[in-house]
Amino acid sequence: MKLLFFGPPGAGKGTQAKMVAEKFNIPHISTGDMLRNSVKNKTEIGLKVAEILERGDLVSDDIMNALVKETLAELDSFILDGYPRTLPQAEFLEEALKSMNKNIDKAVLIDVSEEEVVKRISSRRVCPECGKVYNIISLKPIKDNICDVDGHELVQRTDDKEEVVRDRYQVYLKNTEPVIEFYKKNNKVVTIDGAMDVPDVTKELFNILGNLSL
Ligand SMILES: [Zn+2]
């Protein structure tokens, strides 16, 4: 099975991809893992990546594309998580797979609205002392805004603030919507309602993918 996973920040895409990978015994490939592995294995691309990361620069599309191609060449099944992020990357992936006589089976979209994502993420609080994460809606501390473990006052991370979450959601939409449209044209997209509880999303994914008989 060759799968892509898409979803906005806060959709639980990585968690779900891992569950599916375990259930169907497919390698779960994230862009972060690919970068780390290439550096660790000192591949030709890995040496370049190491240099770029040491300088603190971002890895270019060209290098990411080359890395994806190199990684997928060795795999007959995979879940690709975090790539393609843009339409040019999707077009590259299509060509690269074609040259290997491979094809994406499904692009899984875990769909969550902006309002739901804002509600989920902006309700997170964290203890600056021990790092324990709370949620003022779904995982409240015993005493309002106080860490259960050490009594420190909880804070909201900058990344979790509403305006930051909305910005990230808009960036996601702008980049990913054309990618989703690209796969919709090929009837590859499976949309899951990511507003459901995590176990229900997993159950539905298992059902749908289990019935594909790939
Ligand atoms: Zn604490």
State the name of the first-level CATH class of the domain at 2-27 and 75-113 and 162-210.
Alpha Beta
Largest sheet: 5 strands, parallel
Roughly how much helix do the residues carry, as a percent range? 40-55%
Instruction: State the low-pLDDT regions, or none.
Output: none
- Which overall shape is indicated by the principal axes computed on the Cα atoms? globular
CATH architecture classification of the domain at 2-27 and 75-113 and 162-210: 3-Layer(aba) Sandwich
What's the CATH superfamily of the domain at 2-27 and 75-113 and 162-210, by name?
A: P-loop containing nucleotide triphosphate hydrolases
Walk across the major sheet and give the strand order. 2-3-1-4-7
Bound molecules: zinc ion
Annotated CATH topology of the domain at 2-27 and 75-113 and 162-210: Rossmann fold
- By oligomeric state, this entry counts as single chain
Strand percentage lies at 5-15%
Question: Total strand count, please?
Answer: 7
Terminal Cα span: 6 Å
Residue-averaged pLDDT: 93
Topology pattern, helix = H, strand = E: EHEHHHEHEHEEHEH
Notes on the protein architecture:
This protein is an alpha/beta fold and 214 residues long. It has a domain at 2-27 and 75-113 and 162-210: Rossmann fold (3-Layer(aba) Sandwich), CATH 3.40.50. It is 49% helix and 14% strand. The protein contains eight helices and seven strands. It has helices spanning 13-24, 31-40, 44-55, 61-72, 87-99, 114-122, 162-185, 198-210; strands at 2-6, 28-30, 78-81, 106-111, 124-126, 133-135, 189-193. The protein has a five-stranded parallel sheet, sandwiched between helices. The protein has a two-stranded antiparallel sheet with strand order 5-6. A hairpin with a 6-residue loop joins strand 5 (124-126) and strand 6 (133-135). Helix 2 packs across helix 4 (61-72) and helix 6 (114-122) packs antiparallel against helix 7. The longest helix is centred in the last third of the chain and has 24 residues, at 162-185. It is globular and about 60 Å long. The relative contact order is 0.17. Bound molecules: zinc ion.
